[in-house]
Amino acid sequence: MSFAAAIQCRGLTVEAAGRPILGPLDLAVAPGEHVLVVGPSGSGKTTLLRAIAGLALPERGELELFGEPASGKGSLALAPEHRGVAMLFQGAALWPHLSVERTLRFVLARKGVKGGAARARVAELLSSVELVGFERRLPGTLSGGERQRLALARALASRPRIMLLDEPLGPLDAELRASLLARIDSLHHQESWTTLHVTHDPEAARSIATRVLRLERGSLVNDGRADRAGARA
Question: Which DSSP category does 171 fall into?
Answer without folding.
Answer: T
